[in-house]
Amino acid sequence: MFLRVVVFYLSTMDFSGVLNAVQAATGPSPDLIQLVQFAPALGVGVMFLLFRRTTRVDARFTPVRVAARRSALVVGIVIAAMLASVLVHVVAGRSWRAEGLPFPFWALVITMIVGAAGEELGWRAYLQPYLQTRFSVLRSSLIVGVLWGFWHIGGFSHGLLYMGLFVVMATGLAVVMGAVVSGARRTNLVVATAAHAAVNLGLILLFTEENGDLFPMAVLAAVWTIAAVVVTSVQVRRPVEVEDRAARPVRLG
After folding, report:
1. pLDDT at 242
2. What is the DSSP string of 99-167?
3. Closest CA to 8 of 179, 118, 166, 130
4. What's the CA gap between 207 and 221, in Å, rounded?
5. What is the DSSP annotation of the chain?
6. pLDDT less than 50: residues of the chain
7. What is the pLDDT of residue 59?
8. pLDDT at 29
9. d(CA 195, CA 77)
10. Which residues in 86-96 are b (16+ Cβ under 10 Å) and which e?
11. Exposed, middle or buried by CB within 10 Å (0-12, 13-18, 19+), for 237?
12. 209 with 165: CB under 8 angstroms?
């Protein structure tokens, strides 16, 4: 298992460098979409080529009503977390509103969804269920969250403290997403994408943490850590129904 996780992660990092170079040379504005978001999906392609017989992408869809409820739940959690972060800013007397949108809102919604799906195909549709073959949902989510956070290597340009806070935020978010997705009885790419896109949109609309400001990043890290604790506590008190073993993951190829 360790070898495959390393291969997937290193290939994802390699593709990230290539896609960043392509975007810098010829690609669209990174304010609209970042090509690097498709690196995890390409990493899954590498796993499929190297470990064809055993590489599975758990991208099955739950019934529409279940997917809709779970998507609404996770988006609601995202909205609550973002509003709590705004409240902290207001109480602290800090500015929180971004200056303006670089592109029309509808265009950002579309590109955020597309980009989030590219990432989630690797993180929550491949790596999370693979880890869950050996570890619990919580432990798998923690591992994915840490790897996911450090994958955003550009955060190091703002310093170690900023990057550390970003990893904490990503890990808290990963725990929340892992709990909500597992509650849908199957790993659902739609639910994970909805959560990821909602977070990205919230960050663009409300905060300027990408400028390297430590305060909003610290607030977001704290809020998502609290959200992870709350969601995990609720999940423990209400165990998830065991998945029907007759249903098998979709195999690429």
Report:
1. 40
2. S--SS-HHHHHHHHHHHHHHHHHHIIIIIHHHHTTTS-HHHHHHHHHHHHHHH-GGGGGG-HHHHHHHH
3. 130
4. 13
5. -HHHHHHHHHHHHHHHHHHHHHHHHT---TTT--GGGGHHHHHHHHHHHHSTTT-EE--PPPPHHHHHHHHHHHHHHHHHHHHHHHHHHHHTT-----S--SS-HHHHHHHHHHHHHHHHHHIIIIIHHHHTTTS-HHHHHHHHHHHHHHH-GGGGGG-HHHHHHHHHHHHHHHHHHHHHHHTTTS--HHHHHHHHHHHHHHHHHH--GGGT-HHHHHHHHHHHHHHHHHHHHHHHHSPPPPPPTTS-PEEP-
6. 239-253
7. 63
8. 87
9. 9
10. bebbeeeeeeb
11. exposed
12. no
Kindly state the tokens that stand for 37. Answer: 């978001």
Per-residue pLDDT, 55: 72
Both structure tokens of 186 = 């199957």
Longest dimension (CA), the chain: 56
The residue with tokens 């790993």 is 187
Query: In which residue are the tokens 């849908």 written?
Result: 184
Please state, in angstroms and rounded to a whole number, the distance separating the CA atoms of residues 11 and 13: 5
Q: Which residues contact 157 (CB under 8 A, 6 or more apart)?
A: 212
Beta-carbon contacts of residue 73 (< 8 Å; ≥ 6 apart)? 180
Which phi and psi angles does 57 have, rounded to 5°?
A: -115, 115
Strand 250-251 vs strand 56-57: parallel, antiparallel, or unpaired? antiparallel
Cα dihedral 74, 78, 79, 81, rounded to 10, equals 130
Length of the chain: 253
Q: Quote the CA–CA distance of 200 and 113 in Å, as a whole number.
A: 9
Least Cα distance to 33 among 121, 122, 109 occurs for 109
- Whether 168 and 223 have beta carbons less than 8 Å apart is answered as no
